[in-house]
């Protein structure tokens, strides 16, 4: 029926996204996390940050997140205390940045630049047992890795908002057809829904693959 997304590997790769109910990554004029971060969710994020993922990101996300991290560290930052702690903490984690336009050395600490093809590079990282990896934003990179069958886990946290008028960055445009087997779910603070799946990329709708 289709192609499984990942061979057995000592280095699992997770695509990790936060989305509005209608599938946007952010919305014009809305605060971070759509203003709905709350204690249970924030405590979970802190625990996740201790799992020593290597984070994978593209050039645009690198530029955005490194600038936000530097701004959050400034004395006159406009970020909330929680947002600032989350952003500045990213400086301490391992990051691999895929870009042909950026130049080494990268200024954000613990960031390694890879100018080779991202799909080939991540496939090699998985073969060599690089340890657990997760995407950080980077919607086009996430889409490419999923389509290539490299993703072991697909996780979304759904925020209970519809941003049809102000939504930015549609998550699923350009995706292949994908079957999802749920392996985890939970609710944070009575309103945010975590959904985690094992994805299988399909060559077409079920029952239509060539025999």
Write the layout of secondary structure elements.
Layout: E1 2-4, E2 13-20, E3 24-27, H1 39-48, E4 54-58, H2 59-73, H3 81-89, E5 95-98, E6 111-114, H4 118-127, E7 133-135, H5 139-147, E8 153-159, E9 167-170, E10 178-188, E11 192-202
Parallel strand pairs: 2-7, 2-8, 4-5, 4-7, 5-6
Antiparallel strand pairs: 1-11, 3-9, 8-11, 10-11
Helix pairs in contact: 2-3
Briefly characterize the structure.
With 211 residues, the protein is of the alpha/beta class.
Helix run count: 5
Q: Stretches where pLDDT falls below 50 for ≥5 residues? A: 1-9
Total beta strands: 11
- Share of β-strand residues: 25-35%
- Structural class comes to alpha/beta
- N-to-C CA distance: 9 Å
Run of helices and strands: EEEHEHHEEHEHEEEE
Largest sheet: 9 strands, mixed
What percent of residues adopt helix (DSSP H or I)?
25-40%
Mean pLDDT: 88
Judging from the principal axes of the Cα atoms, what is the shape?
globular
Note down, in words, how this protein is organized.
- The chain is α/β, with parallel strands linked by helices.
- It is built from 5 helices and 11 strands; from the N terminus they run βββαβααββαβαββββ.
- Strands 1, 2, 4, 5, 6, 7, 8, 10 and 11 form a 9-stranded mixed sheet that branches. It has a two-stranded antiparallel sheet with strand order 3-9.
- Strand 10 and strand 11 form a beta hairpin.
- The model is unreliable at 1-9 (pLDDT under 50).
List the defining traits of the structure above.
disordered N terminus; 211 residues; two-stranded antiparallel ribbon; 25% helix; alpha/beta
């Amino acid at each position: 029926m289709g192609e499984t997304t990942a061979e057995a590997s000592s280095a699992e790769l997770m695509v990790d996204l936060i989305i509005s109910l209608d599938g946007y990554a952010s919305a014009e004029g809305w605060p971070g996390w759509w203003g709905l971060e709350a204690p249970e969710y924030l405590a979970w994020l802190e625990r996740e940050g201790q799992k020593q993922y290597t984070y994978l990101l593209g050039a645009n996300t690198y530029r955005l997140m490194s600038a936000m991290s530097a701004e959050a560290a400034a004395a006159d930052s406009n970020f909330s205390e929680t947002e600032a702690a989350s952003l500045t903490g990213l400086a301490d984690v391992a990051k691999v940045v895929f870009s042909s336009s950026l130049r080494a050395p990268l200024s954000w600490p613990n960031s390694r630049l890879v100018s080779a093809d991202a799909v080939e590079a991540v496939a090699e990282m998985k073969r060599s047992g690089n340890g657990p990896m997760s995407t950080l934003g980077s919607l086009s990179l996430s889409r490419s890795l999923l389509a290539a069958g490299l993703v072991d886990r697909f996780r979304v946290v759904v925020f209970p908002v519809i941003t049809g008028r102000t939504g930015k960055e549609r998550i699923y445009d350009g995706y292949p057809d994908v079957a999802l087997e749920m392996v985890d779910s939970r609710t944070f603070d009575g309103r945010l829904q975590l959904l985690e799946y094992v994805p299988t990329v399909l060559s077409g709708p079920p029952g239509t693959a060539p025999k």
